[in-house]
Amino acid sequence: MRKLLFGSWLLSLFFCLSVMAQDATVSGRVTSSDDGSALPGVSVQVKGTTRGTTTDANGRYSITASPRSTLVFSFIGFTNQEVPVGNRTNVTVTLESSANALNEVVVTGYGGTVNRREFTGASSKVSGNTIATLPVGSFDKALAGRAAGVQVTSASGVPGGAVQIRIRGVGSISAGSDPLYVVDGIQLNNSNSSSFTSSNPLAFLNPSDIENIEILKDAAAASIYGSQAANGVVLITTKRGKAGKTQVSLNYYKGLSDPIKKLNVLNTQEWIGLRTQALINAGTSADAARSTVLSTLRQPTTLSDAEIAALPTYDWQDAVYRRGNTDNYELSLNGGNEKTRFYVSGSYFTQDANIVNVNFRRGTLNTTLTHQISNKLTLEETIKLSTTTSNGQFGSPSGGSFLGAAAFSSPLILPSVPIYNADGSYYGTPAQGGIPGILNQNILQVSELNTIRANTNQFNGGIALNYKITDNLTLRPFVSLDYRAIRGKYFSDPRTADGFNVRGRIQDQFNENKNFLTNLTLNYNQTFAEKHTVSALLGAEYRSDINENLGTNTINVPTPDFQYASAGALPQSISGGWTGYRKASVFANLKYNFASKYDLSLIARYDGSSRFGSNYRYGLFPSISGAWLISEEPFLKGKSLVSDLKLRASYGTTGNDQLGSLFGLANFPGLGLYSAGYDYNGAAGFAPTQLANPDLKWETNTTVNLGLDFGFLQNRLTGSVDVFNRTSTDLLLAFNLPVTSGYGSISRNAGSVQNKGLEVELNSTNVQAQRFKWTSSFNITFIENKVTKLYDGIAPLQNPDSAITVGYTDFYGVGRTAILGRPLQAQYQIQYAGVNPATGRPMFYDYAGNITYTPTSPRDLKYLGTELPKFYGGFTNNFTYGGLSLDVFFQYDYGRRSFNSQTSFLTELAGRNFNALKDVYDRRWQNPGDITDVPRTINGNAETRGISSLSGSRTLEDASYLRLKQVTLSYDVPAAFSSRVKVSKARVYLQAANLLTWTNWTSYDPEFLNLGSGNSGLVPNSRTYTAGINLTF
Amino acid sequence: MNTFIKISVASVLMGTTVLLASCSNLLDVTPRSSASSETALTTAEGLDAALNGIYDRLQSTVLYGRDFLALSEALSDNAQATNKSGRLNNESRNIAQASFTNWGTSYLAINQANLIIGATANATFLSDTAQKNRIMGRAYFLRALLYHDLMRAYAYDPGVEIAQYNRGGVPLVTTGVSGQDQITFPARASIADVYKQIYSDLQTAIPLLSATNIPAYGSRPAAQVLLSRVALYNKDYATAVQYATQAIAPSNPALAVPLLANSSYISGWRAPNHPESLLEIVYTTPENIGVNTSLQTTYTTLVRSGDRSTTGGFGDLVPSTAFLNDLEAEKSSTGAVLDIRRQLYELGTTGRGPAFIECTKFLGKNGIINLDNVPAIRISEAYLNRAEANAMLGNNTAALSDLNTIRTRAGLPASTLTDNTAILTEILRQRRLEYGFEGHRWFDLKRRGQDVVKVQGNVPYTDYRILANIPSSEFATNKNLRQNFGY
User: Fold this and answer.
1) Of the candidates B401, B461, B393, B453, which has an alpha carbon nearest to the alpha carbon of residue B426?
2) Is B96 on the interface with A (CB under 8 A)?
């Protein structure tokens, strides 16, 4: 009741303040300073009100405004212009095109936008043009290196596969770290519910439909989203129609992709020699070793040296890697009149990865409609439909063991193993006993015969009404549905290893997610006494998100032709589950601007979620921020050196509600639960699995941000610098309980993590001649991550560090250890010390820095870096000459230390029956006195009374890289020519992605996510060449 | 004024939403794939489901899914590891810490039993006495089994404690925990106290349980044999004799579970349900433990008896030469092995390396590879328990009678031994052979304080590795708990 009174009070306040004036109709035309052409779709607004219109196809507009008011003309890519109306009825303006960052429009959520000049928070914007033509399955992948503070990592090179975005570091230990994604006001459910493939819930969106992406980074910018905002918010605005003649636009591109690199491994003769030596070094006699090796390879043990020398080598990497193909077809229609505008688009995108039988298909249909029902009422609608099919790799993050993955196994299979029999059939099928060696599956057969697939159908729709109660007050109800249905299929062919003994296995999944959202917002905007502009937003919101899953598993099919469940003679299991949560919130934002120089913004959100324990159902997330536009002060105004200068400061809190685990009981972390599935003798059973914790609540992020936006030399050099301190507290940690209590652990809000960082964005116009222009933009982000608190009473490790550690399983299912005072995702390992030149034995450092052969854990553990980067960013150069444009984009990531688990196997040097890397082979210790980092080969990889030579930090590598991510050459065909073929605009382009990579990483690709088994079995990113054409009629 | 009306409408709309938002049950979402701990045990159906939840824990590989059979063989002198998958290599070599790991699972199950006992005792919703007795009887029986298995793995057995190494029994928790405030930090109870509790639980269970044998759940004869086993471990031989006798010859003779005859002995091991079972852990199709750690894959590479052309599992653990020699020791005049139990061991395949003679007691008896019900208590044990207890009491005649029941059933001639020590030795030898690869050997040596003599390296009884190590995570949370000596 108190809240109702408060709401009414605020509303009455608005009412009393509203000022009525004598209005007249003003009309006119807006043109571009570039070529004098009419500008359709320019926003014309009466300053300090929400009253506005847009220009028609001829750049004309008409609006009611009082003589005392000021008209604001704004259009993306152009400098805003404010024109006092006075007594005129015709106001014609020419807008200056602008590269000025401070004049762009910032999307702030809940239908709000603000001029960057008045924005008090920290955000980065990426324009849709930047990412539209990149041949990637999902837009998030294209964001890498584009915005400061935003780290984008592809899980792998699987088309349409998982991508991870971390905004300003990782601020959670065991809870989720994903930002909130909002597409046209629709808050997405971005949990990955596909059982068998690496899928990406954001892949439903055709990147070309995106107008822009706004990334809200600090609490001031994001706290309007309350308990979902701790990891930042990504606001995606899709294209909407512009009034004028209907424009039909066709876009087609074709791409080819090749592996970034193949690994150079041993040939048959080198391997036989090496393996023989490994056995001899382990004490086997030379003759016995030779015959053992030959019989392992299923060769006659009587082969002579000459016969061995004649044995062929087979290239398994060649057999499984392919030239990938990308095709993208798009058609969009865009037009309308002053009352009704539309944007309709359809697309079909196909991408085959550069590895056998991994591909992605997507069809999309997108419609947006804006319709003015009356002077007071406007309708905004958007419907996006998409269907995607992805065929995943065997051993991709959730489909089978990585041992059968083509990318993993192809360099490791013994080189003498043929791929096909003489008759063209697969060599070494399970019926023939498999192929020789530890990896005994013919991976080509496995990849070609098995089906690992996910079909995802998504519907994303929202409808909003804008009702202008007065010129200053708008009421906006909004309803949306984000629906996703996934059909997963995993068919293990009875001819392949996994299906052989069970005569084929069919697994099906159906997962359905319904995410319903509705909110009601009230916007108020008023200018008093010319200098005081007040705007306010008040809103209430409800969200319900429900997920249901069904899985079946059946074995024994008659023949491989039968791939659907009814053919399976022996059903194995059926699983089903339901999970869901609800949120209810009220929020408000009050903004005040004085004399276009000083801005103040207050935000508060009162957020409740069923995920939180009963004692903490609701949380309050406030923020305060301010900005000072220094360049408007008399002492700077008009100075040519400093064109723009703005100081920003913010402080606020946001929450993280991604509790639990991505796959488990994520929505009920605070309840005492009995779980099903503890069945016995065909009867249902259950068991207590979770103790109630009514005190469980959100994780809290407190962010302080200081920012400076600047433009020097007539904005030839613009940019911003932000420093931030993001303190994450109340982080969920699993407290171990004595298991004698019947429970292993309970989650409590206990830990803290700090992310301190510096972000720099620079844009410059280096050369601006008559027809030639060279611009650059550069961004870099430094982040220092540190675990500042675990819980009390943890016994320190028995080592000189006395390290306080907690083992945990993170939200994504990866087992990790948090170390107090160190960054998250730390590498706490025994340090490798190289090779004893006298004996070839691997050596390690003990805690005191002395050489030892038998280090012990935890005594000799040392902190050796983290999987989080020290800094990352991107660098773009754009060269334009007339209609010709060249864009060169580099992306970099520095300081990640990761285990190269793929290389680890390849470094065994035939200690087991795997192939090995040639350059490690060349560096191996062979004779006393050899100085090298590679120990001598030995069967089993461990010397007598020694630990495995691959232990500790031996394969811990620097995963830093600098990548020439994108080079685009495009040509805008001159209008004089294109108009002759009735095309108003024509553009052709050539593009290369991932052209060059500089890295010390020794296997395929340093860009990957460790989802538990390192980089083993991941499909590497590929080098892609694309050619495209874009026609507008 | 028109505007005022609209604002009012708007504010009412807003207000309603705000009220809805602050209404607390709007945010109460009840899980549908799981149940709240407040309501789970408030119906008879719920108690039955909870009981199934304990049996489900027994299926775990750390209990009867594998370890309580295979580890006892691997650690003892019965078996050797083949290194075909590498599993049980360390256990076979008695590497420190490579031992039983049932601590956590057992205590989870004990808490489930405690919760059921607590909920049933005061249940007003259980009007059917038979139902109430069944639930209580099974819960007490299971708790006794779980505590005894914990004691077998982690504590010395009564009477053979090594005083300077003895850290007591295991923590005794008999009250269910359903809230954070009920969590306790118990120290290890004395060995005697834990045995007292096990006796008490079984004595409570026996009259409550059905006299009819129901092997999937364990009924009165199962509890009686278990108590005779517990008493044997407790060197309480009179009690061992008493309860073994009750199981062998119940008051209603029609309910007696007979020993298998010589002629049906082998086929008994090929049937999905062993006819001698008093407690047999049942596995249904979705509960298949699979190719890595099922008993079939652990013991054999074969998929069916006599077919060496198809390789199934790994065959990681096979009989030691000493065990086979013992099994083949008695031969006919023509040199044929007399003991029919030898037929349960046969040569495996070469599909995963050299062929070994493998145990085929678990061969996908339920019709699917790696799917076998696991006999945890068989009626044969009652005879062997009684024979041993009588021998220990000096009742040679009675002991010899039970011994010969087992011997003649196996195809061996009746023993005519008279010396008490010799009879006892032969009883223990028969126990080894009868229960080969069924998980008794290590515990039988341990409870008698005997050294383990094996080619992989002897383990004297005074060695700290005789006891398993308690998981180290327990000591971080429970300061009252003491680790076993040596770890």
Assistant:
1) B401
2) no
Domains and CATH numbers, chain B: 44-63+102-208 (1.25.40.390)
Bridging pattern class, strands A186-187 and A180-183? antiparallel
CB interface of B with A, residues 262-291, below 8 Å: 282, 284-288, 291
The reported pLDDT for the residue numbered A4 is: 43
How many Cα neighbours within 13 Å face the side chain of A458? 26
Closest chain A residue to B187, measured at CA: A740
CATH label of the domain that carries residue A87: 2.60.40.1120
List the single residue in A501, A553, A682 with the smallest CB-CB distance to B284.
A682
pLDDT at B174 over 60: yes
Backbone angles phi, psi at A823, to 5 degrees: -65, 160
Assign B104 to helix, strand or coil.
helix
B402-451: per-residue pLDDT in tens? Answer: 999 999 999 999 999 999 999 999 999 999 999 999 999 999 999 999 99
Nearest-CA distance A687 → chain B (Å): 5
Interfacial B residues in 201-240 facing A (CB < 8 Å):
216-217
- Residue A92 confidence (pLDDT) above 70: yes
Q: Which of B27, B32, B102, B292 to mutate to test the interface with A (most CBs of A within 10 A)?
A: B27
pLDDT of the residue at A94: 84
Nearest CB to A4: which of B19, B103, B180?
A: B19
Is the pLDDT confidence value at B8 over 90?
Answer: no
3-state secondary structure at position A763: strand
Return the exposure string of A55-78: e unless at least 16 CB atoms fall within 10 Å of the residue's CB, then b. bbbebbbebebbeebbbbbbbeeb
Q: Could B33 and A1 be called an inter-chain contact, meaning their C-beta atoms sit closer than 8 Å? A: no
Q: Which of A760-769, A774-783, A803-812, A916-925 has the lowest mean pLDDT?
A: A803-812
Banded pLDDT at B145 (limits 50, 70, 90): very high
Flag whether pLDDT at B249 surpasses 90.
yes
pLDDT surpassing 60 at residue A99 = no
Using the predicted structure, report yes or no on whether residue A21 has a pLDDT greater than 50. no
Q: Is B182 on the interface with A (CB under 8 A)?
A: yes
Interatomic CA distance for residues A746 and A666, integer angstroms: 14
Q: Return the closest-CA partner of residue B487 out of B61, B149, B99.
A: B99
The total of structural domains in chain A comes to: 1
Q: Is position A939 within any domain?
A: no
Going along A33-91, which residue ranges are E strands?
43-46, 52-54, 60-65, 70-74, 81-84
Distance CA B109, CA A687 (A): 9
Q: Best residue in A739, A747, A790, A808 to probe B by mutation, most B CBs within 10 Å?
A: A739
Q: What's at B22, amino acid-wise?
A: S
Distance between CA A680 and CA B60 in Å, rounded? Answer: 12
Interface residue B95 vs chain A (CB under 8 A): no
Residues of B in contact with A576 (CB under 8 A): 33
- Tell me if A210 is assigned to some domain: no
In a domain, A51, yes or no: yes
Q: According to the model, what pLDDT value does residue A659 have?
A: 86
Cα gap A561→B175, rounded to integer Å? 57
Distance from CA of B77 to the nearest CA of A (A): 26
A643 Cα to chain B: minimum distance (Å): 43
Region A799-809: mean pLDDT is 89
Q: In this structure, is residue A201 part of a structural domain? A: no
HEC letters along A385-446: EEEEEEECCCCECCECCHHHCHHHHCCCCCCCCCCECCCCCECCCHHHCCCCCCCCCCHHHH
Give the closest of A522, A691, A740 to B107, CB-based.
Answer: A740
Residue A991 is encoded by which pair of tokens?
A: 């593009």
What is the extent of the structural domain holding A92? 2-98
Per-residue model confidence (pLDDT) at position B246 = 97
Chains A and B: how many Cβ contacts under 8 Å?
246
